[in-house]
Write a structure and sequence with these properties.
single chain, alpha+beta, four-stranded mixed sheet, two-stranded antiparallel sheet, 6 strands, about 40% helix
Amino acid sequence: MRFRSYRSPLAALFVVLGSVLVIGCKSVPPAPENVNPQAPKFDSSAKPAEKVDEATGFKEATPTAESVSENSSSEADKLNAQGVLKPIQFDFDKADIRADAQQTMNANAGRMRDHGSLKVRIEGHCDERGTVEYNLALGDRRARAARDYLVSVGVPAQRLRTISFGKERPLDPGHNESAWSVNRRAEFIFVAE
């Protein structure tokens, strides 16, 4: 490879600046089409963006590895390992608590009252269809619907925290309706704080 010699210092400066810009710039992927502009954006490298839930005054955050590994106690760990709190399923593209899930929610509420010293993280999950942004928003609506139901049956709102994982944590990695129906869920996890 042969290099050209530049007689003008200004031309040499432009070549150097152009090289720095080309080397220093990352390519930015184009924005996805048909994305809801009001849906929350998820940046896995960012710190959790806290927001305060107006109804409960509870801080909520976008999930990260640190935020999900909240404080736990041996009691919370033992109860979670035993599967004391049961998950509920949702219909496609819905966040309503189904009639068949209400019995599970009532039983979960009783178990939460039995262990009043522990808080509960409600995780909203979706199936693989749809964008990351859309599923994070849908998972958030599912977790909030579960929280609102629990509050309506007597669980103190201060003990409940919601988080959405969207489609990032499927239970079943399949690509069919039976897998999708399992993945559309809310899970309930005891945490100690």
